[in-house]
């Protein structure tokens, strides 16, 4: 009987056994050709858990037949790195697979990096975090390849599951199992592209199934029961969490209700209500803005209610807020106007505040020439309120315009008023 988990036993022995990731290691890729010809470059493997980073590293080592050492940066120390260096001196060249490479400390780097640079150690680093954010530049610069792995497609997972069921040496091939194609597909579709979960689930299903006359029969209800909740959920402090927040905002901005609700559901499963509520509130003013000014207060009320309620009830006001934002008229004109003003200031487009706008609440203001401000409320203009034609910007930039209205929703009215006031300034 095997002691190791099925997912461990079924790791590919060479790159031809890799399931999926054909954009990285397919037979028509440069990496495949390099490895089959005996050249293994240092590289970083980036992607979510369970999609094959470790398997790819082991497969590369199996194909190249080079000495292979695996370490985890969270538990390895300087002594472990020194042992790798010593092995490289003996063998001439060694592949070091370093999982969680973003946790590599400076002392370990100082010991290892010179040997990576001269080529005696081939470094294959794996990380679930964005390497451009979380991996030390010293390591990145020595890794010629930064490869982003993808979730496996259903057909790739079906191939992997069938291989496990038929492999007599490493898999379940010596066991008589009654299981149909539809059940295998259900497993493949239920793990959201995660190969490790697919094999672990298969092993659990086989273990929990009834055996009669030496044959294990898999039943549909058992698959449904064990699949459980497997989604895009990730670590609320990791890169995937920020990818989900980004996907939520872009879906709302694109008015796709179903996509926005899907990403909201995934975010709520991480339990980080504060981050979700903060992002929704920013979106209400960044993406909805002046076109639907009532949305901001609505979202504020919804997020405050969510934090006060906690999960699972918090999902209710947040769902209302997301759908309202998706279907609301949208404008980003307000914050773009402010950003334009900030750029102008940073570019030196400034000037003195006009004298009539300066503070006059002190003795001697008149002696400095401050004063002459006309109070707009004293001059009503239709139903708009009060307005007078006087200069507010400094002389050097008096004609500059930062605000460009978006003709959407309620902002159409604001845009009309803005244009009329510009005409009044020209005519008076």
TrEMBL record:
Occurrences of domain AAA+ ATPase (ranges): 39-151
UniProt keywords (A-Z) are: ATP-binding, Nucleotide-binding
Recorded hits in CDD domains, A to Z, give: AAA (cd00009), HLD_clamp_RarA (cd18139)
The coiled-coil regions, if any, are none
Biological processes annotated in GO = DNA synthesis involved in DNA repair; DNA-templated DNA replication
Recorded hits in InterPro entries, A to Z, give: AAA+_ATPase, AAA_assoc_2, AAA_ATPase_RarA/MGS1/WRNIP1, ATPase_AAA_core, DNA_pol3_clamp-load_cplx_C, MgsA_C, P-loop_NTPase
Looking at the record's lineage, which domain of life comes first? Bacteria
Q: Could you identify this protein by its name?
A: Replication-associated recombination protein A
Q: Which family does it belong to?
A: Belongs to the AAA ATPase family. RarA/MGS1/WRNIP1 subfamily.
What GO MF terms are annotated? ATP binding; ATP hydrolysis activity; DNA binding; enzyme activator activity; single-stranded DNA helicase activity
Pfam family name, one: MgsA_C
């Amino acid at each position: 009987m095997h002691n190791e988990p099925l997912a461990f036993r079924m790791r590919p022995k060479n790159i031809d056994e890799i399931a999926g990731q054909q954009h990285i290691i397919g037979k028509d890729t440069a990496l495949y050709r390099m490895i089959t010809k005996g050249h293994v470059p240092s590289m970083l493997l980036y992607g979510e858990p369970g999609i094959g980073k470790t398997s790819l590293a082991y497969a590369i080592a199996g194909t190249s037949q080079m000495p292979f050492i695996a370490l985890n940066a969270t538990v390895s120390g300087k002594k472990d790195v020194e042992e790798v260096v010593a092995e490289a001196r003996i063998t001439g060249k060694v592949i070091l697979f370093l999982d969680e490479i973003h946790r590599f400390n400076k002392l370990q780097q100082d010991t290892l990096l010179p040997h990576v640079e001269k080529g005696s150690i081939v470094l294959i680093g794996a990380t679930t975090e964005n390497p451009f954010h979380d991996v030390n530049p010293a390591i990145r610069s020595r890794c010629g390849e930064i490869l982003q792995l993808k979730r496996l497609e259903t057909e790739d997972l079906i191939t992997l599951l069938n291989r496990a069921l038929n492999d007599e040496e490493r898999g379940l091939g010596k066991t008589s199992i009654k299981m149909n194609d539809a059940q295998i597909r259900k497993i493949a579709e239920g793990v959201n592209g995660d190969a490790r979960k697919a094999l672990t689930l298969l092993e659990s299903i086989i273990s929990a199934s009834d055996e009669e006359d030496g044959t294990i029969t898999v039943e549909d209800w058992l698959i449904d029961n064990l699949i459980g909740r497997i989604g895009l959920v990730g670590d609320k402090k990791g890169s995937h969490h920020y990818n989900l927040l980004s996907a939520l905002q872009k879906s709302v901005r694109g008015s796709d209700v179903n996509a926005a609700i899907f990403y909201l559901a995934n975010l709520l499963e991480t339990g980080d209500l504060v981050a979700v509520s903060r992002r929704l509130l920013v979106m209400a003013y960044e993406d909805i803005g002046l076109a639907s000014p009532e949305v901001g207060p609505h979202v504020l009320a919804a997020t405050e209610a969510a934090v006060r309620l906690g999960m699972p009830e918090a999902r209710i006001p947040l769902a209302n807020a997301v759908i309202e934002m998706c279907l609301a008229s949208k404008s980003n004109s307000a914050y773009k106007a402010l950003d334009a003003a900030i750029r102008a200031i940073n570019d030196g487009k400034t000037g003195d505040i006009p004298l009539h706008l300066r503070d006059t609440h002190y003795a001697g203001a008149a002696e400095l020439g401050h004063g002459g401000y006309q109070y707009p409320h004293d001059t009503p203009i239709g139903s708009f309120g009060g307005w007078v034609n006087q200069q507010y910007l400094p002389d050097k930039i008096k004609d500059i315009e930062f605000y460009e209205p978006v003709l959407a929703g309620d902002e159409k009215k604001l845009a009309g008023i803005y244009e009329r006031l510009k005409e009044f300034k020209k005519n008076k």
